[in-house]
Write a structure and sequence with these properties.
Length: about 210
């Protein structure tokens, strides 16, 4: 069982995140915190696998709290969940030790995929942040060329109309893994839906005409 501590000063937001996370049978929210002091106490007690941290807290910014929590429990990984999507916030959070940054506007499955990616040792940015960074660093390149081999497989199957469950069966991988690849490739491609993927694939002649 993977243990998670939620840190957000809004009770409604915490409850929504908790319900979403605990739909996953192997994820357990062991503590909910509304401020930095509560977060430090909870991390000291539980030594969780992961902290989901809002940056806007009543007793100060969550940015310095990232380093503080890591000093308390170095094995704990931190994902920022924030309404702030500006690069200064993202870059500073990662510099201070966060392993992921997810904006609060993303789809629920992308949040769960991000948490899992970070717990698997990866660094994760939500698709909207990936899109923005990819646009700056890869201007003029076909975004499909930036996909990994597995992401390209998932891309073509989703573009061809398969559901994530069907893609998982087709490739022999877990459905949650498909969601991780889906979030990543949609960020790289700047896609907002499977319809966008279909259009990209057909524009490039990557799908049969009758798909």
């Amino acid at each position: 069982m993977h243990t998670i501590v939620l840190v957000d000063d809004h009770a409604i937001v915490r409850e929504g995140f908790k319900r979403l996370i605990e739909l996953e049978p192997d994820l357990d929210v062991v503590a909910e915190c509304r401020n930095a002091d509560d977060a430090v106490e909870a991390v000291s007690r539980w030594r969780p696998n992961l902290v989901a941290l809002d940056l806007s807290l009543p007793d100060g910014s969550g940015l310095p709290l990232i380093e503080h929590l890591l000093s308390v429990s170095s094995e704990t990984r931190i994902v920022v969940l924030s309404m702030h999507d500006g690069d200064p916030y993202v870059s500073e959070a990662l510099r201070r030790g966060a392993s992921g940054y997810v904006t609060k506007g993303v789809a629920p499955e992308e949040l769960v995929a991000g948490l899992r990616a970070v717990m698997n040792g990866e660094t994760f940015l939500s698709s909207d942040l990936q899109e923005r960074r990819a646009g700056r660093s890869n201007a003029g390149l076909d975004p499909i060329s930036r996909l990994t081999a597995r992401e390209r497989e998932v891309f073509l199957l989703l573009a061809g109309g398969l559901t994530p469950k069907q893609v998982a069966a087709e490739l022999g991988i877990g459905q949650k893994t498909v969601y991780i690849h889906r979030a990543s490739l949609m960020g790289k491609l700047g896609a907002g839906s499977e319809l966008d993927l279909y259009r990209m694939a057909t524009d490039r002649g990557l799908l049969p005409v009758n798909t």
